[in-house]
Write a structure and sequence with these properties.
Shape: globular
Strand content: 5-15%
Structural class: mainly alpha
Number of helices: 11
Length: 295
């Protein structure tokens, strides 16, 4: 069930009550199709241990599907916020008060938490979008309305160390899939190259300056168009899409060997173009990117 402007939290209610287990099982089923020899599955840690073979032999590896789950929840969370903003704007344009509409969302969130408390305490990531929506409504719309109570959530025993909306979290949500395998079972990039890429990205975001890149990221095993679009999604969630930051474009051009022969002007012109990116059959692409491809 998709969220709507009338029911901007409908997705989360349906997902938590009815579809969470099936979604997790499908993620595991998708990984099984890769024909790796699975050693163990830990659903509470979102991990699959398996044997991976390359030219140097076989070794034990761990696949985490947590980033896919979190990326999907984050994309739906952002969509819910957009629906709430759109609805409140309509209320204001019509000269009506939106307080009851927002408080109804608070009641829905409390109902979900109360009814699914055991599941949410077992899987704390489910709490984060609900908490984030309540905090967003309070801060943006209700704090200055003295006659309206804020949305207050019941106490629940969850791990608050799970981040959901920080810059670091957004970076991993968008880029985390690059550490996994493509649809041909090839590792998209080595763990060392992935860690190096993340270090450079974190440095750029923290300093707003292009870092000194001594060793470019070697060619990775997805298309250049998908790589380009992935960083457009990251730009959107970090900085929005207007204007496009020229230094961000320069940064990714200087970071990847894949973009060495591309001019920055070419990357900028094509940056958010999704026509050349085909997600069909590529289940490794995270939800947060697929949402943009289908928009």
């Amino acid at each position: 069930m998709q969220s709507t402007i009338e029911s901007p939290i409908a997705f989360f209610q349906d997902f938590i009550f009815n579809n969470f287990e099936a979604y997790i099982n499908n993620l595991i089923k998708d990984f099984r199709r890769c024909d790796f020899q699975i050693i163990s599955i830990n659903k509470e840690r979102y991990e699959i241990k398996y044997l991976y073979y390359d030219d140097d032999g076989g070794y034990q590896a761990t696949h985490s599907y947590f980033s896919k789950l979190k990326g999907m929840l984050y994309a739906e969370y952002q969509y819910s916020l957009k629906l709430i903003d759109k609805s409140c704007l309509q209320y204001m344009e019509e000269g009506r008060d939106y307080s009851n509409y927002l408080l109804m969302q608070g009641k829905t969130i409390r109902f979900i938490i109360k009814r699914a408390k055991a599941k949410i305490e077992k899987y704390p990531i489910l709490f984060k979008p609900l908490e984030g929506i309540a905090n967003y409504i309070n801060k943006k719309y209700l704090e200055d309305k003295k006659e309206t109570e804020l949305i207050k959530l019941d106490s629940i025993d969850v791990n608050n160390n799970i981040d959901f909306n920080s810059t670091t979290d957004i970076i991993y949500t968008v880029l985390g899939y690059l550490k996994d395998h493509n649809n041909r079972r090839e590792k998209i990039m080595s763990d060392e190259q992935f860690d190096l890429m993340i270090r450079y990205v974190n440095e750029f975001v923290a300093t707003n300056q292009i870092p000194s890149i001594e060793n470019k990221i070697r060619p990775i095993k997805i298309s250049k168009n998908l790589l380009r679009f992935t960083f457009w999604v990251l730009h959107k969630h970090l900085y929005t899409t207007r204007p496009l930051r020229d230094d961000f474009i320069q940064f990714i051009q200087s970071l990847f060997q894949d973009f060495e022969i591309w001019e920055c002007s070419t990357i900028k012109k094509k940056f958010g173009n999704k026509d050349a990116v085909n997600p069909r059959g590529q289940k490794f692409i995270p939800h947060i990117i697929k949402v943009e491809l289908s928009a």
